[in-house]
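Hi there. Long-time user, first ticket. I'm pasting a complex I've been working with (about 436 residues overall). I'd like to know whether the download I got is complete or cut off, because the file seemed smaller than I expected. Thanks.
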Amino acid sequence: MVLREPKSMDKIPEPTLRRLPWYLSNAKLMKEKGEKYVSSTQISAQINIDASQIAKDLSYVNVTGRTRVGYDVDMLIGALEDFLGFTDKHKAYLFGVGSLGGALLCDSGLVHFGLEIVGAFDIDPNIVGTNIGGIPVYHSDEFEQRMRNDDVRIGVLTVPISIAQEITNKMIAGGIKAVWNFTPFRIRVPEHIVVQNTSLYAHLAVMFNRLNAVIKKE
Amino acid sequence: MVLREPKSMDKIPEPTLRRLPWYLSNAKLMKEKGEKYVSSTQISAQINIDASQIAKDLSYVNVTGRTRVGYDVDMLIGALEDFLGFTDKHKAYLFGVGSLGGALLCDSGLVHFGLEIVGAFDIDPNIVGTNIGGIPVYHSDEFEQRMRNDDVRIGVLTVPISIAQEITNKMIAGGIKAVWNFTPFRIRVPEHIVVQNTSLYAHLAVMFNRLNAVIKKE
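Hi, the file is complete. Here it is re-exported in full:
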């Protein structure tokens, strides 16, 4: 017997993927409030997304609601966490222990969402050999050697822009399959490599621009 | 005489705003390499965006290139930093000094991009009254009082999801005009308030999903 997988998991649209964590946080909130069931209509009222859109998004996830009752809150939370990959442990290395890199090492929240940073790399003799947020910092030269022992597929990129591409190339040559790029640099990668850009500075620029527009109107 | 403002600054499309920091980091890199001029064709070759798109995006910025020579690198960097708001100091408060909030207080990189966090609020007696990353942590009850003295318009939201909406409402009632929302909670705000969502966890979910799809194909 072949187990049926949830509806074409690898073809889920990115907007849906981005909305699912909203439903998850909403379901967690309902659970905190003591609710046992939650309907897409209730979620809709709270986060201002169309109930039919929510039902459609949730159809990708392996969870079934009951008519007039809605989804079992615990089951919904479990199904969403599984689906989003937050219950697996994805091991990662971090490259570049500067200000942002060091800050991310200290953010224990990431591990609750499935990202376990098991080591960091830098060349600064003042930090190589130390632990930051409980995570060991190795010299960058040790990367290839460590990759052979650790089962790591994700690299978090927090290096200066001047070496962003060079370090990316080195990561990929060593076997990294997904790069979480926090630099404002647009890195180039081969087709089969996943890149997730999270540029805090680009988000700041958008926010400043919108804020200026609002202030001008006042 | 009325000074002409750069081409309708408050109507610049968001995709353009998101690409401009890439051009900025690329121009900085060219400067580091000792280049005096850079053309949109050169930028295009390095970051894999169409040269005509780059020229169009840069037309929003107050900078003019010279035929066959390109843009003066220093002028381009200055114009982009000005335009993106990175040279102004935008004062901000941070709400919720947990793991991520504390990490952001330690990220001195934000101030180089125009965001100056001048205070943080929490209710935990162990951290209220301390300094984290040089930034004072106040009790949340002091927010309204402090708002009257400080010229702050931006609030960074890093509280637990259970109080994300409540704290947002409080921020706005106190005079905050823009909310940088790091929680995975979809906050609701009045129309004239700017919200910038930066959910690291949503980005993680997208990355895990894409990575799983790649691994399955191998």
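A couple of notes from our side: Residues 9-84 of chain B form a domain with the Arc Repressor Mutant, subunit A fold (CATH 1.10.10.10). The beta strands of chain B are 37-38, 71-72, 90-95, 115-122, 131-132, 135-139, 154-157, 178-181, 194-197.
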